[in-house]
Specification:
heterodimer; A: 123 residues; mainly beta; 14% helix; B: mainly beta; 14-stranded mixed beta sheet; eight-stranded mixed beta sheet; 6 helices; 42% strand
């Protein structure tokens, strides 16, 4: 079981990710220069990590808590911190959240996509 | 080429290279004249003394501004420097775009202490770029020009190096020198602009100027361009903020780097070729003459010219235009000997004045200012005046043409006309013509190359090119760099232009073999 924890100045919330795969990405921030000898030199700045999660269904209460972290990025100017069990601890991330699609009267949400991109915290 | 560490050289050979950069601005233009390099066991840790990049980097006055670090705000930076053809007084420029989504770089005069009230034109800026595992190298030292240009998310600064600011400054004192080489004149101008000797590297020039004269008030750029043209030299501010001069002929050059297909991304003949196969040189050469008359007003005993009247107890001030500029003069003496400066005066009735008229004078190179004071008790008229000194007269007029006919037959006529009175001598004119014809009579001499970026390259570095049809040594005349974010990727590039160049092996007395391969410098 993978546990996702989001933390900011207002809230700390942990929820499980029960439907792998958890997509982990590596953002090189690079450029490849191909020389006349047909070899490649790669220049990069500071590589960053990214994660993507997809929930076929998510409880409304969970979605609302998660949505709170996403919204507070814009109201406070601060990034949330991401902890993924066994992977990363308290990493400042840019967070994206897909639109809310309520599918029943219990307000269950479907097709929720969460993405996190490593960045720096506001100063 | 800038001096670098061994780690830097290693990074140049790596296949995966982390780049790094530094962007600092002294928005408040606070200046600390006591800043010096950090000295072990002497300087205060975390104090104000600077850590030096290398022993070869002299501290510059520009280092003494209090710069703030805005490296993490940079979205893109582009910087370039180039030498004009065939001589140059050139500026470097930089364009830096920074993240301004939070309005940090938006001018706001409300709080006089906040940085935003100092977002103004002419702010000192410095750029460094290099490799994260090695070192950053200074790339640009200069001043922002206008207010930044804003988009919804960015602020963009355009900057020119400090030398371009200096070019626009007028010289404060007239420059009149004789028998000086180019470097002496350059140092004189730079000193007038307030530079210290530690801020420039000016070797001896090739051209000796018998006499040169620039009135105060002309711009420093006008003086320097004229001197550079007569020298066919190069003057620029390098990446570390050092004013550098390369005379027409240099000894001890060596290849800085080899650029082969493991370093080159693209190479082609430049569309802007620089050819010269026909040279016209026009010059009036002045030389300082022996002590002689430089101006005469001879109306002795000749009546009462009211324009030369000196009132009772008063003064008369006149400016005498000299036919030629002079480097020295002697104050005239009333009824003095005619072998040196003299003047005579008469009373209204025509009787000569024996005494009672004093004089002061000063030479203003092209003009002599004389002031008479009358203490005779009667109106007097100055009726004769002659000033002696050392004039700089035109001794030679050069009007010569030089052709390289095989090149003209092949490519057509490419003429350069040089009209410059600071050329100094006919032999210097011949040397300039030889230099130009030898260097620029062939087509296909200039190439544009995209290379794996090397922040250590500098203008006038000689590189050995080994790429297909492009073989041999070339001298770098232009360097353009870019480092920018492009989405999640990076834009990082360096383009150089270089002109075909043969490193001469000059004949050295007591060293070179007679009738050997070393050549006599023109």
């Amino acid at each position: 079981m993978i546990t996702i924890t989001l933390t900011d100045a207002t809230d700390t919330f942990s929820f499980d990710y029960v439907a792998p795969p958890l997509t982990e990405g590596f953002i090189e921030g690079s450029t490849d220069l191909i020389r006349l000898d047909n070899n490649v030199t790669t220049y990069f700045t500071v590589p960053k990590q990214s994660w993507g999660l997809t929930y076929a269904y998510m409880d409304s209460s969970v979605y609302i808590r998660v949505r709170g972290f996403h919204r507070r990025q814009f109201s406070t100017g601060d990034r949330p911190y991401l902890t993924i069990s066994g992977e990363v601890t308290m990493l400042a991330v840019q967070m994206e959240l897909s639109d809310r699609q309520i599918i029943d009267n219990c307000l269950t949400v479907s097709d929720v996509e969460l993405s996190f991109r490593e960045t720096v915290q506001s100063v | 080429m800038q001096i670098v560490t061994s780690q830097f050289i290693q990074e140049l050979g790596k296949q995966v290279v982390p780049v790094d950069w530094d962007f600092r601005v002294a928005f408040k233009k606070e200046f600390d004249p006591d800043i010096k390099y950090f000295i072990l066991d002497s300087s205060l840790l975390d104090g104000g003394d600077l850590l030096g990049y290398s022993e070869d980097n002299p501290i510059q006055e520009w280092d003494k501004y209090t710069y703030e670090d805005y490296s993490d705000k940079v979205v893109s930076m582009e910087w370039e420097r180039s030498n004009d053809f065939p001589y140059s007084v050139q500026s470097a420029m930089a364009d830096i775009s920074v993240d301004n989504t939070d309005g940090f770089f938006t001018h706001n005069p409300v709080d006089s202490e906040a940085i935003q009230s100092f977002i103004l034109p002419k702010r000192p800026m410095r750029l460094w770029q290099g490799f994260a595992r090695a070192m950053n190298l200074s790339q640009f030292v200069g001043l922002s020009q206008d207010m930044p240009k804003y988009t919804t998310t960015t602020a963009a600064f355009h900057a020119l190096d400090f030398l371009s600011e200096m070019y626009n400054q007028p010289i404060q004192q007239t420059i009149a020198m004789y028998n000086v080489t180019t470097d002496v004149v350059i140092k004189s101008v730079l000193t007038q602009l307030g530079l210290l000797p530690s801020q420039y590297n000016i070797p001896v020039g090739r051209n000796t100027i018998p006499f040169l004269y620039f009135e105060k008030g002309v711009t420093a750029g006008h003086v320097l361009r004229s001197i550079m043209q007569a020298e066919m030299g190069l003057l620029w501010l390098d990446e570390q903020g050092l004013v550098r001069f390369t005379p027409r002929i240099v000894a001890g050059e060596a290849v800085s780097a080899v650029l082969d297909n493991s370093k080159i991304l693209d190479i082609k003949t430049s569309s802007s070729q620089s050819m010269i196969n026909h040279v016209k040189i026009i010059s009036e050469i002045r030389a300082v003459q022996s002590f002689q008359s430089i101006n005469i007003k001879d109306n002795e005993g000749g009546g009462n010219d009211s324009s030369w009247a000196v009132p009772v107890g008063g003064t008369l001030e006149r400016f005498l235009q000299l036919d030629d500029p002079a480097v020295s003069s002697v104050l005239p003496i009333l009824n003095g000997d005619r072998t040196s400066s003299w003047f005579t005066a008469n009373f209204a009735g025509g009787a000569p004045v024996p005494s009672g008229v004093s004089v002061s004078g000063s030479l203003l190179v092209n003009t002599y200012k004389v002031t008479f004071t009358n203490s005779t008790g009667s109106l007097v008229y100055i009726d004769g005046l002659e000033i002696f000194g050392e004039p700089a007269r035109v001794v030679n007029e050069i009007d010569k043409e030089y052709l390289y006919q095989p090149s003209i037959d092949k490519y057509g006529d490419f003429t350069i006309e040089i009209n410059n009175n600071n050329i100094g001598s006919e032999s210097n004119a011949d040397s300039i013509a030889y230099f130009l014809l030898n260097g620029y009579q062939a087509y296909n001499g200039v190439i544009d190359i995209e290379i794996l970026p090397n922040p250590a390259f500098q203008l006038s570095d000689v590189v050995d090119i080994d790429s297909g049809v492009y073989q041999g040594t070339y001298k770098i005349t232009s360097i353009k760099n870019k480092l920018a974010k492009s989405g999640e990727s990076l834009e990082y590039s360096q383009s150089i232009s270089a002109v075909k160049y043969q490193i001469p092996s000059w004949f050295l007395l007591d060293i070179s073999l007679l009738d050997g391969t070393d050549i006599l410098a023109p």
